[in-house]
Structure to design on (1175 residues):
């Protein structure tokens, strides 16, 4: 017994030594493997961060970043004084929150209903169709949405058919946010349902059978068995979508909005693009961008912590 | 091993630091101006340019914006090669300019699309002073062109007595016209414009619309009144289709323009009594059904469908609307024919305003070694080429371009530089005599005009079977420009000159909201959602939400100029 | 009672089927409408007469696309971009995911790298500084400006890293015993096992690169260099905006000539064909990857 332990110990020791020697080359090999990616990251992510300086300057392109005058926090102070920012911030949150909430809701309902479809062929075909919009660019889908929702579009033709007034979805400040949320839910609900469907199918069918025998109807089974089994994943995804509260979807808004709906359709990203680039307020645009990044960062880190705490999973 | 590790570490550190420094330097360096004008290998001067393109340039195969008959002409005549730093249109162009400014590398020459942008470039000291090169190099004809605007054009590009850009000109487009289906008028035997001055009164227009509604000459089964668009108060003539411009003119009102009132105070055209009266007419007409009952919700496409389906036969628009708007009507109904009138003011005149004389400018980068080339290009294209008598022999390639209908945006400077009266002059000196057979087509100097005349004659010979394009050209020229010429000759115009065309600081900030307020309130008044007196509420809202500040800013700025 | 229950169950079933099938139709029909428009005459399209069946069926639009050199140029640029990005993304993903899947004891400095990666996801210098870097590297108007800034796909790296962590240690140890170095282990052991997961991130890369229009807008200064989605995006010119903001005769005429709804619809249809071709794969691996990535982890 003793001999054996000694032998093992000896062997372990030898292994550590060998591993240690190996570790040196292995470790440098690891660094080497990281190197190409890190160079790209340095060039295209970290060097541009130097540009953050612009937010604290009155950046004059002719003078460059070294020659422009530093103005401290002036742009940030101006930003908070601007009534526009509050409005845009609100738009961003409302649109993003609406998308997350309704999107989750629609995906959950759809996955529960889809799970009830017994015809394999039908289920497969519907899945194929509802996942499709997720893979298409907003450039393409904007054309589809405009085609549907313009004043002479299909939706208005249907409204007219039922004797209702036409609605100017794309040009009215009260309808544009619902349009953005609705079309985003349309694009993503199918795809988002994949995860929920997986959670539903993971439930032990025996539970349902037992409940059925106890006389529980479909509603009750969904409420007491299916939904609780989905709860952890719903919670996780809800937490993980938190950082997106400031990403209301540049591609979508950019391809759909017009000056008529800036009031309610303008979000932080489109605002930064228009003011910071098109209107050439480079410094101010950068300041707004930093503000957005900072809040996003806080949200991501807290989401990660929350996920760790409540669901035992994390982003990174 | 340890040594290796240390070496590796140091190498990594070294490479990262060097990368950082190099890129940082590059980042910062980008702001310094380019060292010198480069030349091509064969010694030609290089001009880098920002070019405004069109979606459908119709260039022959193989030619591009960078290499086409026009750029080759520059190469041949001025020994300069044009290299495009960027090409784009619309918002894409604005973005390219912004990126170029941000990186501190302006092209040698580029177009800027507004005076504000020009002002910013001047203030940031990014563009060259063209005063001397203009005076020395501009041909007499070019100077004549700008003089025809009484200095309004060059003034716009002048800062502190220095000419900082080459302004584009906007020739006279006034008035806003009322296009009515002539074949329907004939069919119903309506009487319009008995005195033959091409001015019709509001009552005449109303009666015509009523007759069209009652008799449905288009056999559509569902005739509607005069269509207007929700951009009711657009502020110029060039794009003034489906607007209230003509009706406001009746009351000598000019929405969206800053003008001096009787007392010499600066007022905003949209807030004047005349505008209120015009809205009153529109509201009354809407109530009577003279105006399309779905006004406010119809899109451009909707309205074009109304015209094409024969549901309506009256539309307001500029002289060139047959070229791009009404043409679909001919496609559907080969007998369709329009006539153009303008509305007679209460003073018996056609009340019109001078449009912003510029809008676009060509600028030259500061420190560019050959600013004179900009003026030489100007001479070449707007004098030499514009006045060339024998394009076929002297510029065969360009003659071919004209035949193919290659878009004007392919010229190095995508701006128009013509005398204020050039449209009318061409019409009365060339088109009319040629159409009447007084001069031969071959005698026409300008190639574009020559093509126009050929197509117009094609239509006159066989109106029913003529191509839609011939129909369009006939209408836009003979009816559209014809009306302008007639009104000019008979001195029927009563001109108003707005006092300010620029953008003040408050306009930049609040302009969009004020415009929205205006558009929405006007529509509400017209459709009767609010009574006409609500206009006064609109005026006070407009003033309170920034209008007063704007007027004060304009007053200050004008006082400063004097 | 029993009868009653039976009926209500049937009604319930009917309602469920109706909702699910109509969800499918809501996703399909708007897209189908675009297809129908692309096969209709432009008069019919202007008159809003096209529903689900083409009116005045014509293949004219597709013939026009065949001759449209700019369309195919842009198409080619997009294809090129997708391939180059795919290669570079995949190489960097496996190269970086493997060392990162080691604990910080085995791979010293692992956490520093990880934090650098994550920080780059959270914070960026903004559009203009990035543009300046790309410009100073002389990448403007080159295919590399579309490929290199997105070379490091942090999200995909984390996904694959997590997958690598889940691979049994014994496999790696056996390879070490055989004297394999990390690169050999990666290529011979990890990559073959992870093919489904790698397929997922490969598809991420393909879809993302094909659909992106914005980098084309920023880094390409000429329409002739636009990738396909940027080109299609630039087609949407609104005549109403032009009328409102004032426009001259020639620009209005030019715009009317290109505002060709059925032709643009056909361009859109052709632009999504490549995605439809790989769609069966997308469906299979994406679902797999998504479920693995979020439920099991």
């Amino acid at each position: 017994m003793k001999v054996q332990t000694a032998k093992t110990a000896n062997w372990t020791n030898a292994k550590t030594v060998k591993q240690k020697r190996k570790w040196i080359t292995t470790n440098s090999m690891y660094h080497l493997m990281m190197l190409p990616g890190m160079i790209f990251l340095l060039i295209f992510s970290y060097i541009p961060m130097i540009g953050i300086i612009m937010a604290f300057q009155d950046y004059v392109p002719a003078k460059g970043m070294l020659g422009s005058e530093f103005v401290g926090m002036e742009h940030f102070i101006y930003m908070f004084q601007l009534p526009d920012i509050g409005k845009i911030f609100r738009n961003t949150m409302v649109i993003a929150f609406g998308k997350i909430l309704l999107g989750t809701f629609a995906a959950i309902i759809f996955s529960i209903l889809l799970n009830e479809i017994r015809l394999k062929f039908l289920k497969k075909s519907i899945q194929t169709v509802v996942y499709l919009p997720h893979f298409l660019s907003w450039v393409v889908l904007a054309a589809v949405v405009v085609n549907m929702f313009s004043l002479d579009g299909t939706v208005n033709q249907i409204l007219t058919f039922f004797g209702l007034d036409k609605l100017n979805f794309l040009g009215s400040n009260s309808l544009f946010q619902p349009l953005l949320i609705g079309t985003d839910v349309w694009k993503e609900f199918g795809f988002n349902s994949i995860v929920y469907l997986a959670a539903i199918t993971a439930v032990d069918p025996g539970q349902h059978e037992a409940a059925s025998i106890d006389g529980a109807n479909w509603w009750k089974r969904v409420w007491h068995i299916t939904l609780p089994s989905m709860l952890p994943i719903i919670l996780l995804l809800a937490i993980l979508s938190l950082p997106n509260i400031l990403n209301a979807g540049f591609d979508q808004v950019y391809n759909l909005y017009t000056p008529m709906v800036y009031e309610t359709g303008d979000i932080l990203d489109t605002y930064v693009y228009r003011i910071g680039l098109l209107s050439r307020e480079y410094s101010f645009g950068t300041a707004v961008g930093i503000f957005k990044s900072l809040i996003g960062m806080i949200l991501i880190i807290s989401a990660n912590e929350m996920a760790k705490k409540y669901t035992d999973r994390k982003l990174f | 091993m340890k040594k290796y590790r240390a070496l590796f570490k140091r190498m990594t550190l070294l490479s990262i630091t060097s990368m950082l420094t190099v890129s940082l330097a590059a980042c910062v360096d980008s702001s310094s101006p380019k060292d010198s004008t480069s030349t091509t290998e064969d010694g030609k001067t290089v001009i880098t340019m920002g070019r405004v393109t069109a979606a459908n340039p119709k260039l022959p195969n193989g030619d591009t914006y960078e290499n086409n008959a026009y750029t080759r002409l520059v190469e041949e005549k001025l020994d300069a090669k044009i290299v495009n730093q960027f090409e784009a249109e619309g918002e894409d162009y604005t973005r390219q300019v912004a990126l170029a400014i941000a990186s501190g590398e302006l092209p040698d020459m580029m177009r800027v699309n507004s005076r504000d942008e020009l002002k910013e470039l001047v203030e940031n000291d990014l563009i060259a002073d063209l005063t001397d090169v203009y005076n020395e190099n501009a041909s007499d004809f070019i100077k004549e062109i700008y003089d025809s605007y009484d200095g309004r054009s060059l003034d716009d590009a002048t800062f502190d007595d220095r000419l900082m850009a080459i302004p584009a000109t906007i020739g006279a487009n006034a008035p806003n016209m009322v296009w009515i289906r002539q074949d329907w008028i004939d069919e119903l035997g309506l009487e319009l414009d008995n005195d033959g001055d091409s001015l019709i009164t509001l009552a005449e227009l109303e009666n015509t619309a009523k007759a069209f509604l009652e008799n449905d000459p288009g056999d559509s089964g569902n005739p509607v009144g005069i269509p207007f668009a929700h951009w009711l108060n657009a502020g110029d003539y060039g794009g003034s289709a489906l607007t209230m411009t003509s009706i406001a003119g009746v009351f000598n009102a000019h929405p969206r323009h800053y003008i001096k009132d009787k007392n010499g105070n600066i007022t905003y055209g949209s807030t004047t009594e005349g505008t209120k009266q015009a809205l009153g007419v529109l509201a009354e007409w809407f109530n009577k059904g003279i105006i399309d009952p779905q006004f406010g919700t119809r899109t451009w496409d909707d309205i074009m469908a109304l015209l094409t389906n024969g549901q309506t036969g009256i539309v307001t628009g500029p002289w060139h609307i047959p070229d791009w708007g009404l043409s679909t009507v001919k496609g559907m109904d080969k007998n369709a024919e329009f006539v153009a009138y303008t509305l007679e003011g209460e003073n018996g005149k056609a009340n019109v305003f001078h449009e912003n004389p510029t809008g676009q400018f060509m600028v030259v980068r500061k420190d560019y070694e050959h600013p004179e080339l900009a003026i030489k290009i100007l001479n070449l294209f707007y004098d030499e080429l514009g006045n060339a008598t024998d394009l076929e022999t002297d510029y065969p390639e360009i003659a071919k371009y004209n035949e193919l209908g290659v878009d004007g945006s392919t010229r190095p400077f995508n701006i128009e530089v013509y005398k204020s009266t050039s449209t009318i002059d061409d019409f009365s000196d060339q088109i009319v005599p040629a159409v009447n057979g007084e001069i031969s087509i071959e005698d026409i100097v300008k190639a574009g005009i020559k093509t126009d005349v050929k197509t117009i004659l094609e239509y006159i010979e066989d109106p029913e079977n003529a191509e839609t394009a011939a129909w369009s050209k006939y209408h836009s020229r003979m009816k559209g420009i014809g009306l302008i010429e007639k009104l000019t000759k008979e001195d029927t115009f009563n001109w108003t000159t707005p006092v300010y065309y620029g953008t003040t600081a408050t306009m930049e900030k609040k302009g969009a909201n004020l415009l929205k307020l205006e558009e929405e309130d006007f529509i509400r008044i017209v459709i009767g959602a609010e009574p006409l007196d609500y206009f006064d509420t609109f005026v006070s809202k407009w003033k309170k939400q920034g209008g007063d500040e704007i007027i004060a800013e304009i007053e200050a700025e004008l006082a400063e100029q004097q | 009672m029993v009868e009653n229950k039976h009926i209500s169950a049937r009604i319930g079933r009917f309602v469920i089927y109706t909702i699910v099938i109509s969800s499918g139709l809501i996703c399909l029909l708007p897209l189908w409408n675009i297809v129908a428009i692309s096969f209709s005459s432009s008069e019919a399209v202007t008159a809003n007469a096209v529903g689900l069946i083409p009116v005045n069926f014509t293949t004219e639009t597709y013939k026009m696309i065949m001759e449209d050199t700019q369309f195919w140029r842009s198409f080619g640029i997009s294809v090129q971009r997708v391939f180059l990005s795919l290669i570079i993304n995949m190489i960097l993903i496996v190269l970086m995911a493997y060392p990162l899947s080691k604990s910080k004891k085995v791979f010293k400095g692992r956490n520093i790298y990880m934090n650098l990666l994550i920080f780059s996801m959270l914070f960026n210098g903004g559009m203009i500084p990035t543009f300046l870097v790309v410009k100073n590297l002389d990448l403007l108007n080159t295919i590399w400006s579309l490929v290199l800034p997105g070379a490091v796909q942090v999200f995909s790296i984390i996904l694959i890293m997590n997958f690598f962590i889940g691979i049994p240690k014994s496999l790696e140890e056996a390879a070490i015993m055989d004297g394999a170095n990390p690169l050999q282990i990666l290529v011979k052991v990890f990559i073959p096992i992870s093919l489904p997961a790698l397929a997922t991130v490969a598809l991420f890369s393909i879809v993302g690169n094909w659909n992106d229009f914005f980098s084309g807008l920023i880094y390409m200064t000429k329409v002739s260099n636009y990738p396909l989605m940027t080109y299609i995006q630039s087609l949407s010119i609104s005549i109403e905006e032009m009328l409102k903001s004032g426009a001259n005769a020639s620009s209005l005429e030019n715009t009317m000539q290109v505002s060709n709804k059925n032709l643009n619809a056909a361009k859109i249809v052709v632009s999504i064909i490549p995605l439809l071709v790989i769609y069966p794969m997308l469906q299979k691996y994406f679902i797999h990857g998504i479920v693995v990535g979020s439920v099991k982890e």
